[in-house]
Amino acid sequence: xxxxxxxxxxxxxxxxxxxxxxxxxxxxxxxxxxxxxxxxxxxxxxxxxxxxxxxxxxxxxxxxxxxxxxxxxxxxxxxxxxxxxxxxxxxxxxxxxxxxxxxxxxxxxxxxxxxxxxxxxxxxxxxxxxxxxxxxxxxxxxxxxxxxxxxxxxxxxxxxxxxxxxxxxxxxxxxxxxxxxxxxxxxxxxxxxxxxxxxxxxxxxxxxxxxxxxxxxxxxxxxxxxxxxxxxxxxxxxxxxxxxxxxxxxxxxxxxxxxxxxxxxxxx
Length: 268
Description:
The protein is 50% helix and 11% strand. By secondary structure, it is of the alpha/beta class. The chain has one domain (5-267): Rossmann fold (3-Layer(aba) Sandwich). It has a 6-stranded parallel beta sheet with strand order 3-2-4-5-1-6, sandwiched between helices. Helix 1 (14-32) crosses helix 4, helix 6 packs parallel to helix 10 and helix 10 (187-212) packs parallel to helix 11. The longest helix is centred in the C-terminal third of the chain and has 26 residues, at 187-212. It is globular and about 60 Å long.
């Protein structure tokens, strides 16, 4: 079973985007869990370990903290079974803060080089609190079924020291609202990180097949789907008429879309 890949274009409200992503991922996790009733019958331990989970990378972890605080406040003021049910799925969304694509690349490479499922090396530490230890202790090394990168273009831009230096006179304007940001996205960095993300999703999908082979009595297929978001950077691509030609801005935008389309199945 092949994995899905999707590029989500979102608005400029960071907190709303964070809440939308959480709602979207929770829905996807619930759908992924529908075909695992046979495993759930093995007991509560097996049901928890085999429950689908998601790995989310973002440089806006504060927005998620604010959303979690809002949800906690709402849960305290309303005796809602729905909120308690939602918390169950939130526990299966691991959020990793990254401030640059270099950090993102390092974490993805770490996932590749520390694979208790496929490698013969030592398993993750039992007493640590890092991501790999959580996967080993809580999920028995089950790979994530979703890999999400929030605001990839923002990560690329904020990794570029030349771009960051240009922001010194424009710091009070939200980064998503600065015009023509996409013109400064380094295409070579975009190609490299999209290639690594795509390869990592395929690699984790293969790992998932290996992991589920330990349960020959059940038929569960959970490839690692890849979701990438962008907040207010890439505009809707408008094809110019043949008489007017293509402007440099339109050409730069079209080039970015061509790169993304090569690695991503669908844009939304």
